[in-house]
Amino acid sequence: MKPSLPPGPEWPEQEKAEQLARGAALKWASGIFYRPEQLARLGQYRSREVQRTSSLEARIKSVVQSYLEGVKTGVWQLAQAFEAAQGTREALGQAHGLLQGMAEAMQTLQPLREQVAQHKQLQVLSQLLPRLRAVPAAVAHTQTLIGAQRLLEAYVCLRELEQLQEETWAPLGGLELPVFEGLGPLAEALGQAVEAAAAVAGQLAREDPALLVAAVRVAEVDAGHTTSLELPPRDWRRRCLQALQEGLERTHFGTPLLLESGALAGWLEALRVALPAELAIAEALVAPCCPPHYKVVQLWTHTLHSGLRRCLQQLLEGPELGAADAFTLLRWTLHVYLGPEMMGSLELGPEADVSQLEPLLTPENIEQLEATFVTQVQVNVAQWLQKALDGEVAEWNREQEPGTDSSGFYHSPLPAIVLQILEENIRVTSLVSESLQRRVHSMALSELGTFLRSFSDALIRFSRDHIRGEAMAPHYVPYLLATFNYQSALSSSVSILQPDGAASGALAPVEAALDELQRRICRLVLEALLVELQPLFEALPSRRWLSSPEVLDDVCERTARFCQDFRRVRIPAVQLLLAEVECTVVLQYLRALMQGRLVCRGADERTQVAERLQHDAAQLRELFLGLRGSRLCPFGPARGCVPRAAPGRTRRPAGRPTALALCGSPRTLQPRASTYSCAVLLSSLRALCLTPGCPRNTATAPGCLNCVLGKGDEIKVGRLGGPCSVKRLKYPGSSPDMGCTSPIPASALYGLHSQVREFLPLYADYRPTYPRQGSELASPAPTLKAE
């Protein structure tokens, strides 16, 4: 009966195989029984299955038999191996016993072995004894050779002594004899002698090249030498090259630099001469004394460059340099050092190229030096300009008038000094770099603006002290006029501060400051004129003014006398002064008339007033035309397009007509471009318009205004040479029988001006100035209405 293993979880393959077999059998049986004709073959199928089962059983038995035979063989081999291991163990035990016996025997032979070693050492020493006795003398001789700088001979003697030491070292088992204790210091002395010779290689190449060659050969020969002695390597080649570099740096950069006046410039100039000469010596004299792989010229170049760079870095880390030293250092490092005078010389070979090395100054160093230079130069420039200004201000209180030039104009060296100081600082920085030039240019413009503001403030203090009487200036107005020439000189020459490539608008702040200074000077001059004329204008209108021309004669006389010094003012400032004086006198005259009060008692008196106005107009016209036609200078276009004071400037846009500013001093100094004359003036005052007959004047001629204040008032408005329109004006509040004796308050005159505006569009910007509150004319002005 065939044994079979019960199916279970331990044999999942068997269970699966049985299921497959049963399935196949059921499939076959179902096929047989489905077809009855196949039942006859059932016996054949049974016999075939019996044969197959027998065959499988035979094969299984064969396999199991072969496995059993293998197991039997393995068991036999294990038994044999166990027997061999037992025999080996017994043999090892016997060997161990023998070894223990030999160790005991060796301990008894140790004294004999020591005796043998000593015998061998004594034998070697006995053979080398004559040579060993000569070692102290050889050491002394070698020391003498080193002192005499006979380096090659000293090295030969040293090598012989070291060879003898090697011969005794191995037989003696590494034992160092006391006789060789001096070889270490002797070798060190020779190495120091080689270093000392290498440190002054340049000098030796000129004076004693044989010594330099000997030192280099000793270093090279020792680099290829090997020894069996357990000594640290001497590395004389590296020490020789290091001594070369240290000697170069010590020669040129070893002395600490004292930051005294001119010390840095002298040191850099000495380097400019010494470094190329050193490289020439290295190429011509030192290089032939050294092996090619030393690359002497390149070594010299790199050593000098790195030493110089390190020295400059230490210099910058110390106290802050002065402006002169910072400028000198920047120019030397950026231009001289790399220029044809030094490292860029054509006489130096490609080995002396330093363009690929680190720059002497880093961008941070350059930024630091530029900032230092600009800061200190700014302080110096500010001090120089302040001293120049103080000297100029001190002259304003002198008893003498301002100095004049050969043409008779007021002259002072102040503008030239200011511009020269600034221009020299800008120009000299172009020798260094564009960035430094831009910095200094910006600084110069800033300091010039500060100087102009200080100059303006000084003028204000000068004027205030003079007006208050604290420091009366004997020649107050001439010195004010002299400052006009200073401003004109600065305006015409400030363009020299503009370097090539600078932004076109860089001078705009300076030009604005100059214009502001010009306006302030003109205002001070006009204030001085008003101080003289104000008492005279206070008499307008009055019976004295109506009956006699003396009041206006005094005005014209004082104005003409005041303008006498204008001939010493240059063009175009004199044109500006005449224009502003003319405007100021006319406006003050009109203000006095409009703010005054005069009672006309009849037609005769009104006619007399009109005649007086006409006479005053003619007199003022004659005054200013006389001033323009005098030797002062042509007045030019007063109301047309007028160029700026400084040549090459742009024109100003037009603004409110200057002649209409009836209150206070003029707010602008330039005659306005494309402006028009006031079209509301009395017919007898038409001559007061500035240069109406100038061929370049684009201004419209004044209108003709005829006022008859009373019943049936009328106004005639028109242009000279053109048709006039007549409008009747009615004074509100007046009775039909108001006669010529009725007073005409100034407020009515202001109301009249407000109505005239509808007839004259050119007068649209005019705003009359009313008296302050509390005066008799402060009541609201009545309005005149046209019929």
TrEMBL record:
GO terms for cellular component: exocyst. It holds the Pfam family Sec6. One of its GO terms (biological process) is exocyst localization. GO terms for molecular function: SNARE binding. Belongs to the SEC6 family. PANTHER family: EXOCYST COMPLEX COMPONENT 3-LIKE PROTEIN (PTHR21292:SF12), EXOCYST COMPLEX COMPONENT SEC6-RELATED (PTHR21292). This is Exocyst complex component 3 like 1. It comes from Suricata suricatta (Meerkat).
